[in-house]
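Fold Annotation — chain and its backbone
Next Lines — sequence and tokenised fold

***
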Amino acid sequence: MDTQIQLYTSLFHNNPDAVFMFDMQGRFTGVNAAGEALVGFTSQELLRMQIWEILASTEGIDSKKQQQILSTGIRKNKHYQLLHKNGQVVDIIASSFPIFQNGEIISRYSIAKNITQQKKIEEALHQMQENFRLISENIMDLIFIVKVDGMITYASPSVQAVTGLTIDQVINQHFSILIHPEKVTNAKSDFAQMLKQKTTLDAEYHYLHPDGRMLLFDVKGTPDVCSNGHILSTVFVARDITERRQSEELLRYSDKLSVLGELAAGIAHEIRNPLTALKGFIQLMEGDEFANQQYLQIMSSEIDRITSITSELLIMAKPQTLRFAPNGLLPLLSSVIKLLEPQALLKNVSILTDFPQVTSLILCEEYQIKQVFINIIKNGMEAMPLGGNLTIKVVERPSDVIIRISDQGQGIPAELLPRLGEFFYSTKETGTGLGLMVSTKIIRDHGGTINIASDVGKGTTVSISIPKALKPTVSFND
């Protein structure tokens, strides 16, 4: 019996957790050293107190409730807050057990573990999670967590607003779902290199939005390297820089136009007068029966070509006084098609149209828009020296109208597409590039855009977007 008492006493006093004993009135009858340290009171002080005096909150615990608590059976892993002697609140997890005598509960003992620090860590972690939630839900940057196999395990809520895909469509999918198909191989290679070298990734990738827009993202990836050197996952932050890049390109384009304007002004002054004189002398010589008429015809043709180039340069150089007016898009297109049909027949080109029955008006300068259509359609016909189909399709959207002109030529390699529209750059042997440059300027002046997509061996499609005029819709029957 003495051995059991000694064992009990040792377990009571040497328990690393706080142990309290109290009677059925809640008065303390025993406490170990860990209990004293937990609440800051000595055993002598506690033996003159009730358990309710060290509870941080006794709201709602009246005498009836107190008796109910004391007479309840085992109470395991209950959270309480105790009031330390110095006034601080201590969080504990406690298990309370009844002590029986002759079948009745005569007292209780409780074992309590201090979880104050754990609680603070949990609260800090919760606050961090809440802050991350607020940040991820309120920024337009995309945040992804990607495993080493490339599968997405987390996507920020902004993914739907930016990419047009729901979170459910992205989670547990390979990250390549957010990369343009033509760039997936490069992206996978970059991802593998990042994992191999355990370095950050900084790259730009295109993404084809479900609505047809091409977006450009600045992507930064960081591998989460564990202490043992292994990588469990990676974190990616992607920012849509489409508008910024377009603004930069517009600025470069404006710089080019400025240089071109100065050059064109000089050309107009220095070349136009000599050209006029040369043209006049050639016309005089054409009346000479001894002159070689074939040579004169060639010279006249080349002078006309130089004059045409100079005129195109002047369009780029001089500020144009534009008289915008509401015009029906389909009548404009039909008049251009009728104008070019004879040339198309000679080249064995069939012009196919896919027009809606009703289309909105566009606010435009009629002759400039016609010039754009002529330039693009002629380019399409010239891309098919052996003939073929040239398709013109009109798609009406809520705020603009899309005109897609597609040929069946050899197409343009992807690496050359960015250079189209540059000063004096052309894929044609005798081209100057000014036709597309002039067309791009006209469409931009109208608040629209020109995009070129090409597939080598299949053909090229030029998509022209022109804003609608705020006018009632009109019907057009060809």
